[in-house]
């Protein structure tokens, strides 16, 4: 089943090949967590202490006292401030070619991003959105403030 999910992900991005090892599972890991930080996954809310795995389709939420730092598999670094909701809509990464895709949405709050290997190898496949805007990434560091 996992092999089929990887194949479908590779085909949907047009990036298939013998070296493609797509992230059907883990997209990243919580590296720092302070205050109230939870993950919404498949309709459940889970605590997000340091070491928690993040998957595509997860939403990361911080409370009024919460901040979280996440490192994705391609070394993209995400840092969400208090009262934030960040949704990882899509994540795929080929560790051999560094091709892949990231699609994330900031529904409220703030998100600081330091782009990783995907933005360098496949810049057209990286986008972050907030209400009223979509940002394509070409390899940089930036901050999104979606407000409340």
Q: State the assembly state of the protein chains.
A: single chain
Number of structurally distinct domains: 1
| Helix/strand/pairing category | mainly beta
Tell me the β content.
over 45%
Instruction: Extract low-pLDDT stretches.
Output: 1-23
**Residue-averaged pLDDT, rounded?**
81
Spatial gap, N to C terminus? 39 Å
Portion of residues within helices: 10-25%
Largest beta-sheet details = 12 strands, mixed
H/I helix tally: 2
Q: Determine Rg (CA atoms, Å).
A: 15 Å
- What order do the SSEs take from the amino end to the carboxyl end, as H and E? HEEEEEEEEEHEEE
How many β-strand stretches?
Answer: 12
| Molecular shape | globular
Can you walk through the features of this model?
11% of the residues lie in helices and 51% in strands. It has one domain. It starts with a helix and ends with a strand. The N terminus is likely disordered. The chain is mostly beta strands and 148 residues long. Strands 1, 2, 3, 4, 5, 6, 7, 8, 9, 10, 11 and 12 form a 12-stranded mixed sheet that branches. It has 2 helices and 12 strands, in the order αβββββββββαβββ. The chain is globular and about 40 Å long. The longest helix has 12 residues.
